[in-house]
């Protein structure tokens, strides 16, 4: 693959997020998922978190509609931790929506009912629909968990969930466009693949209005997103190989079962093999920690110097 030009990272955002920031598109998606036929976009109030302080990242799409608080997330990697992330998001949303003093009163505080959906379009195989539960992350299994949060994961890769795609034309077009980029990127540079996918999509009426209106911004986002996916795929393949060679898989499984911190402690006892350090870094990233937190945690656990941690990061 040819080298692409470097762009300023400040342009990095989610193409999915950009497509569905249009209220008409968002309402269409809601109707398709819930089997409703709402037409008044004025009833839809967007409350997306621009700076989710708990996770140091943006919530993709959040909106209020007829006493429901909808939390939509887009992922290009399978993320079993989405219920935990959504727990942080919904707590912050409720904090914004109500007056904190009222919760100490004698009257019940009415809050919108939450709905959580994750849209997945990564390269890893996945079923059309999967229910992710917060209780699945508990260290000790619970028959009747006192705190539960369920996220419906929908596979929106090309060829999946055809009934849903038929109900929401914009979602179908988004799926086709992403499929085009990925297909062409196997034969040419990322920039060339994005340009070809955009031209064809416009000619075929796929996301036509959106791509014409936001052509340059959508182009930059598409290049960033594909490159990021490719880097993550290569890194995961390398981690998997190292795990097989050095027994990292067992350590990571124990880390998931007993909690990230305890898993890192066990990793420390097994030494400073390269695969373990890389695995720890990747696990912390999956849990949503920023680079400074990862650097500090891994340096402490593995007694690494500044030069050594810089090499791993």
In short:
The protein has helices at 15-19, 23-34, 82-97, 162-167, 169-185, 190-203, 208-213, 215-246, 248-258, 260-269, 274-286, 291-302, 306-312; strands at residues 45-46, 61-65, 68-75, 113-120, 129-133, 150-155. By secondary structure, the chain is an alpha/beta fold.
Task: Outline the structure in words.
The chain is of the alpha/beta class and 313 residues long. The chain folds into 3 domains: 14-165, no CATH class; 168-241; 247-312, no CATH class. It is built from 13 helices and 6 strands. The chain has helices at residues 15-19, 23-34, 82-97, 162-167, 169-185, 190-203, 208-213, 215-246, 248-258, 260-269, 274-286, 291-302, 306-312; strands at 45-46, 61-65, 68-75, 113-120, 129-133, 150-155. A 6-stranded mixed sheet has the order 1-2-3-4-6-5, with helices on one face.
Tell me the layout of helices and strands.
Blueprint: H1 15-19, H2 23-34, E1 45-46, E2 61-65, E3 68-75, H3 82-97, E4 113-120, E5 129-133, E6 150-155, H4 162-167, H5 169-185, H6 190-203, H7 208-213, H8 215-246, H9 248-258, H10 260-269, H11 274-286, H12 291-302, H13 306-312
Parallel strand pairs: 3-4, 4-6
Antiparallel strand pairs: 1-2, 2-3, 5-6
Helix pairs in contact: 5-6, 6-8, 8-11, 9-10, 11-12
Mean pLDDT: 81
Strand content: 5-15%
Protein structure class? alpha/beta
Instruction: Describe the strand arrangement of the main beta sheet, using strand numbers.
Output: 1-2-3-4-6-5
């Amino acid at each position: 693959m040819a080298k692409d030009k470097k762009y300023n990272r400040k342009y990095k955002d989610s193409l999915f997020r950009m497509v569905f920031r249009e209220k008409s598109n968002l309402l269409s998606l809601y109707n398709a998922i819930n089997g409703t036929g709402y037409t008044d976009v004025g009833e839809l109030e967007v409350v997306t978190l621009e700076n989710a302080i708990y996770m140091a990242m943006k919530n993709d799409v959040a909106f209020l509609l007829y006493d429901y608080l909808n939390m939509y997330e887009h992922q290009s990697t399978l993320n079993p931790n989405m219920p935990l992330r959504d727990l942080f998001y919904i707590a912050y949303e409720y904090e914004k929506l109500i007056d904190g003093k009222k919760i100490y009163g004698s009257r019940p505080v009415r809050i919108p009912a939450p709905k959580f959906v994750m849209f997945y379009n990564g390269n890893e195989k996945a079923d059309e629909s999967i229910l992710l539960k917060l209780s699945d992350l508990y260290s000790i299994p619970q028959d009747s968990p006192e705190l539960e949060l369920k996220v419906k994961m929908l596979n929106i890769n090309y060829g999946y969930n055809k009934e849903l795609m038929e109900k929401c034309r914009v979602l179908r077009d988004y799926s086709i466009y992403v499929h085009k980029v990925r297909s062409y990127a196997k034969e040419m540079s990322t920039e060339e693949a994005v340009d070809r996918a955009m031209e064809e999509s416009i000619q075929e009426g796929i996301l036509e209005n959106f791509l014409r209106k936001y052509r340059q911004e959508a182009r930059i986002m598409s290049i960033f997103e594909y490159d990021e996916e490719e880097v993550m795929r290569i890194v995961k393949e390398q981690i998997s190989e190292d795990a097989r060679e050095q027994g990292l898989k067992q350590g990571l499984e124990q880390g998931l079962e007993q909690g990230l911190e305890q898993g890192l402690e066990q990793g420390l006892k097994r030494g400073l093999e390269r695969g373990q350090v890389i695995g720890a870094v990747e696990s912390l990233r999956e849990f949503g920690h920023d680079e400074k937190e990862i650097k500090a945690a891994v340096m402490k656990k593995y007694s690494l110097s500044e030069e050594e941690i810089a090499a791993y990061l």
